Amino acid sequence: MYSRRGVKVLYLGIKGMGISRSLNKDKAVKSEVKCLRHGNAVSFYKVYTAFVNEISISIISIARTNYKCFEEIIEKEINENDNVLILGDDERKSKIDLYIKSIKDKLKNYIDIKLDKNFIDRSLNIEKEKLTKEIFNFFIRKILIGNIKKEGNIYLTPLGNVNRFGKTVYKVLEENKNLQYAMDLRIDIFSGKEFDLNDLTHIIDPIQEYLDSKSLIEINNINLENKEELYFLMLEIN
């Protein structure tokens, strides 16, 4: 039986995002430093825990851990019935590709979150705490459905002006050739402006034309202080 009310996030590190630093600042998040001995070497890693809407979230951060201990950490922290999100940039994932494959093979319920190639550079311009929260919220809801093995893709547009929706939407379609295969799509609009129905129509309608008729779409307006520019975060599960 799956652990419906809990999610474990295997966090490998994302260059420039500083997720661990953001978690350390949140008083509602508890952190615990753990250590493992590998031969004569000792490696440390952190486990962050929190409850979100009565759901237990555990983030196992090995961003600064010796990867030789990776397999032992997995054995200690994760079992096959856990709901697991795997999150990290391509550079870090590539170093431990075989370990990632081995854990995915044994898990019954996981989402391996893929970052768009431009995501990291573009994310430097926004409030990382809000960005991280929205990423987790979206994928946590999806994985709690249960019995899935999937990859989740995250895409971020460049920062754009609120009066030039067309340019931003064109960028989305240009850089997401496989959009028509998305079954669930969420668009988070980060801006200092509150968008009305007319604004949203200019954003959603062109994108919806590329989606399958059975695709589900969700949209959220997320406030950024002192920002009048528009950009939005697209998260999709293929």
Question: Can you describe what's shown?
Answer:
With 238 residues, the protein is an alpha/beta fold. The protein is globular. The protein has eight helices and eleven strands. The model has no long low-confidence stretch (mean pLDDT 81). Helices cover 32% and strands 35% of the residues. Strands 1, 2, 3, 4, 5, 6, 7, 8, 9, 10 and 11 form an eleven-stranded mixed sheet that branches.
Task: Put the structure in a nutshell.
The protein contains eight helices and eleven strands. The protein is α/β, with parallel strands linked by helices and 238 residues long. The radius of gyration is 19 Å and the shape is globular.
Protein topology:
Elements (H helix, E strand, L loop, with lengths): L5 E8 L5 H7 L4 E9 L2 E12 L2 E7 L8 H8 L5 E6 L1 H6 L1 H10 L2 E7 L3 H5 L4 H16 L5 E8 L3 E2 L3 H11 L8 E8 L5 H12 L7 E8 L5 E9 L1
Parallel strand pairs: 1-4, 1-5, 5-6, 6-7, 9-10
Antiparallel strand pairs: 2-3, 3-4, 7-11, 8-11, 9-11
Rounded to the nearest angstrom, the distance between the terminal CA atoms is 25 Å
Biggest beta sheet attributes: 11 strands, mixed
DSSP strand (E) fraction?
35-45%
Question: How many DSSP E strands?
Answer: 11
Instruction: Give the SSE order as H and E letters.
Output: EHEEEHEHHEHHEEHEHEE
How would the global form be characterised? globular
By secondary-structure content and strand pairing, the structural class works out as alpha/beta
Radius of gyration: 19 Å
Indicate the mean pLDDT: 81
Number of helices: 8
Helicity, as a percent range: 25-40%
* Poorly predicted ranges: none
